[in-house]
Amino acid sequence: MNQTFEFISGQLNETLKLQLGTDNKMVTIGRLKKLDGTLAQESINKLLLSVVNISLEENARFSDSRMGFATQGKVSTQPVMQMNVYMLAAANYEDELEGLKMLRLVIQYFQANSFFDQKTNPALPEEIQKITLEACNLSLQDVESVWKVMGSNAVPSMLYKLRIHMVNDSAFPDIIPDLTGESPKKTN
Q1: Which residue ranges in the chain fall short of pLDDT 50?
Q2: Is the CB of residue 96 less than 8 Å from the CB of residue 154?
């Protein structure tokens, strides 16, 4: 998932730099406050992308399991893992009007770029098949809950649901014993 955030952040950052005619980094990944509760200085006057929640895609839960059938000590698994990542795009600017302007640019960017795949975006890491983005409308109570979780005061922001389809080439190869008594073989 780190690759997804690096890709999204990089694409958004390059677009904003071109639009605004600047070489400055406009987007950062992180939080408004550090874990110790102090303000993260690197987040001031920046657009901030933060993970709010991660979940498995409900419709894909069983098709993405690592269960399969063993054949000669190898397991056949489903190749794609589908995750939902809730991402908060927050405009942390000292000048609130500037923050609103930057958030408007983010909303416009994601409205125009709500789908990424290998065919249309060769810079997408090869482990990621596709990413779709969807804006989430929150009630005032939900907004308050999000900012409590973030441990910070609210700034202009928008919550997005990212559906990420990743190739399941696990870094942890399964070793399944062969029922014939031969030595186990790695599946990767």
Answers
A1: 61-71, 76
A2: no
Please name the residue that has the structure tokens 């809950």.
145
pLDDT at position 178 is: 57
Question: Which residues neighbour 125 within 8 Å (Cβ) at sequence distance 6 or greater?
Answer: 3, 4, 7
Strand stretches in the chain, DSSP E: 27-29, 46-56, 70-71, 74-75, 80-92, 115-117, 128-136, 157-167, 175-176, 185-186
Q: Is 73 exposed, middle or buried (0-12, 13-18, 19+ CB in 10 A)?
A: middle
Q: Name the CATH architecture for the domain at 2-17+34-63+78-167.
A: 2-Layer Sandwich (3.30)
Read off the pTM: 0.78
pLDDT of residue 124: 92
For 125, list phi and psi in degrees, rounded to 5: -55, 140
* pLDDT at residue 39 in the model: 75
- Single out the residue of 90, 127, 83 nearest to residue 12, CA to CA: 90
Range 125-159 burial, b when 16+ CB lie within 10 A, else e: eeebbbbebeeeeeeeeeeeebbeebebeebbbbb
